[in-house]
Amino acid sequence: MAIVSEAAGNAAAIELTAVLVAVTGEEPRVLTIQDGKALPSGPFESEHRTLQTGLRAWVERQTHHPLGYIEQLYTFADRDRTQGGRSISISYLGLAREARASGDADPGWRSWYRYLPWEDWRSGAPAVIQDLILPQLRRWAADSADPAQRRERAQRIDAGFGTGERSWNEELVLQRYELLYEAGLVPEAARDAVILAHNYQTPEIFHCVADIKGDSLQLAVEATRVKASTIVQCGVHFM
Question: Fewer Cβ atoms within 10 Å of its own Cβ: the N or the C terminal residue of the chain?
């Protein structure tokens, strides 16, 4: 694995990630691996001549899908994003035509809205915004002890989700995700946590959030096996 050294004893590993997007039947779709749980990715290794050649090698190995033109999308180097050492994650965006993917990594094309259900306005405002997201965001905003921060959070909620006197702006996808991340409402915000969801949970939680799914007995058994320090139980009223 390639190492970027900033100083003696201070090093970071480089992780390469591909966001391959296609539009099929007027629906945006993304190529995933691990049954939809991850994007094609892998470490930058010594035999890779460039970052792009390294990424292409991992994508073709994991999905057997050839890559066309790609461009760098985002770079994350936050110190607390990974455990056990610092990692620099470099993401690339590629536009493609959906084609059959195969390989040992269980690749497949998934709806973009499976992961971002609040962005799917094709049939009007998604119910998940009013029913789940806004109540939790408002509680998060009100929890701050600092009046200025409470106002700032409330303003960001209005701007991002089109509440108050603001209207929905489809271009604020990143701002909405950053807000949900800060509020701890997306799985990536969890640190050493596992999310359990009952079979009767809403589709947004069951398909987009849960790490482990099952009935009441199955979840009780699985909860005794997980090693995470935090367990989040998404139950139903009769539990």
Answer: N
Task: Give the pLDDT confidence of 156-187 residue by residue, as tens digits.
Answer: 999 999 998 899 999 999 899 999 988 988 87
The distance from CA 233 to its chain's CA centroid, rounded to whole angstroms, is 19
Residue 164 burial by CB count (10 A; 0-12/13-18/19+): exposed, middle or buried? exposed
Q: What is the pLDDT of residue 3?
A: 39
Confidence of residue 229 (pLDDT cuts 50, 70, 90): low
At CB < 8 A and 24+ separation, what contacts does 21-29 make?
Answer: 21/93, 21/94, 21/95, 21/96, 21/112, 22/95, 22/96, 22/97, 22/98, 22/109, 24/98, 24/109, 27/111, 27/112, 27/113, 28/111, 28/112, 28/113, 29/98, 29/109, 29/110, 29/111, 29/112
User: 30, 110 in Cβ contact below 8 A?
Assistant: yes
- Contacts by 212-220 with C-beta closer than 8 Å and gap 24+? none
The pLDDT of residue 6:
42
pTM of the predicted model, to two decimals? 0.69
Amino acid identity, residue 227? K
Running DSSP on this structure, what letter comes out for residue 50? S
